[in-house]
Amino acid sequence: MLDSFMVAFNAVAPFLFLLGIGFGAVRLKLTDRAFMDKLNTFNYKLFFPFLMFNNVYSAKPENMPSVKLMVTGVLSVSLLVVLLVIIVPKIVKENPRRGVIIQGIFRSNFIIYGIPLTTYVFGTEKSSVCGMMIMIMVSLFNVSAVIVLEMFREGGKIRPKQLVLGVVKNPLLQGCVVGLLFYLLQIRLPSFIASPVSSLASMATTMALVVLGANLRFDELKKNSRTVTAVLVIRLLLLPLVMVTFAYLIGLRGVELFLILMIFGTPVATSSYPMAQNMGGDGQLAGQLVFVSTVASLATIFLFIFALSQLGLLV
Q1: Burial zone of 113 (CB within 10 Å; 0-12 exposed, 13-18 middle, 19+ buried)
Q2: Deepest in the core among 46, 105, 160, 209, taking most CB within 10 A?
Q3: What is the pLDDT of residue 172?
Q4: CA angle, corner 313, sides to 310 and 315, nearest 5?
Q5: 268 has which bridge partners?
Q6: What contacts 190, CB < 8 A, 6 or more positions away?
Q7: Rounded Cα–Cα distance for residues 31 and 265 (Å)
Q8: What are phi and psi of 271, to 5 degrees?
Q9: pTM (two decimals)
Q10: Strand partners for 108
Q11: Full 3-state SS string of the chain
Q12: Max Cα-Cα span within the chain
């Protein structure tokens, strides 16, 4: 039981530490929110494309997950996005909040939590399967997020030409596409380029969390408490419960069942905050969803891992 708790704690604690660094920096007047907003835009346009590129480029083709796992992940997320695009606008009136809420429900932090948690539970050999699933799911998450946020930009009208241009010009998708080209064509970067690319990629999440911590406003969190609670009950409890049950019923077991939990049960993606803020979404709400889901996931990830372990489904 203690081991299961430590798996969740070791995954979440670094995020909370980085959020605290940003929060403290503003309170100690080491920086201000105006500067952090500029830094957020800089991070979104420079470091995140390198992160997307590096995750796709670094995938190992010999560690392919099963077709059943890939199809389950892709189709279930795609269907979820379609359902959310239909349902959420009927409940939420403001466009900037609609896109952020939809993104917050379907887009998980699988990219950050997947490999560390899989390695901890199953060992290094099994975690390689996770790397390939990350390439597939992160590409889908990013394409879907860009489309959703473009659809619900301030103004409310869906213009196909602007939607397509918004997708094509998105820095994260550009990073994914270039990484996919390098991966498919088996183009390998020389070490003197691969090393700084990896360094730049590693800065994206760290900077996003520090900026998010700096921009947290707890008075706004109180105002959004109902929305945040509703989204996170779906994100951290209902979705993983439904999808892990479904995955079990169709025969997924062990590491592949665990990866379904990682796709649907990890907190809201860190990159959803800078993306929302730079694409006309409600940045405060997006940041609050990342922050609160990261804290709450300490409990929910532990509970799911513990339950699956006790049921003997992680062997």
Answers
A1: buried
A2: 209
A3: 77
A4: 105
A5: 108
A6: none
A7: 34
A8: -70, -10
A9: 0.82
A10: 268
A11: CHHHHHHHHHHHHHHHHHHHHHHHHHHCCCCCHHHHHHHHHHHHHHHHHHHHHHHHHCCCHHHCCCHHHHHHHHHHHHHHHHHHHHHHHHHCCCHHHHHHHHHHHHCECHHHHHHHHHHHHHCHHHHHHHHHHHHHHHHHHHHHHHHHHHHCCCCCCCCHHHHHHHHHHCHHHHHHHHHHHHHHCCCCCCHHHHHHHHHHHHHHHHHHHHHHHHHCCHHHHHHCHHHHHHHHHHHHHHHHHHHHHHHHHCCCCHHHHHHHHHHHHCCECCCHHHHHHHCCCCHHHHHHHHHHHHHHHHHHHHHHHHHHHHCCCCC
A12: 54
Query: By C-alpha distance, which of 236, 294, 255, 279 is closest to 98?
Result: 279
Residue 73: the pLDDT is: 96
Q: How far is CA 20 from the centre of its chain?
A: 20
8 A C-beta contact, residue 101 and residue 87? no
Q: Which amino acid is at 173?
A: L
Which domains, from first to last, does the chain contain? 2-307 (1.20.1530)
Counted residue by residue, the chain has a size of 315
The model's pLDDT over 203-239, given as tens digits with 9 standing for 90+, comes to: 888 888 898 888 877 777 788 999 999 999 999 999 9
> Quick one: tokens of 254?
């062990």
Token look-up 């360094």 returns: 199
- Measured CA to CA in angstroms, residue 269 lies from 22, 24, 152 at distances of 18, 22, 19
CA distance 100 to 275: 10
What is the reported pLDDT for 82?
Answer: 96
Structure tokens, 228: 């945040």
Q: Which amino acid is at 31?
A: T
Tell me, rounded to whole angstroms, the distance of Cα 121 from its chain centroid: 20
> Phi and psi dihedrals of 49, rounded to 5?
-60, -40
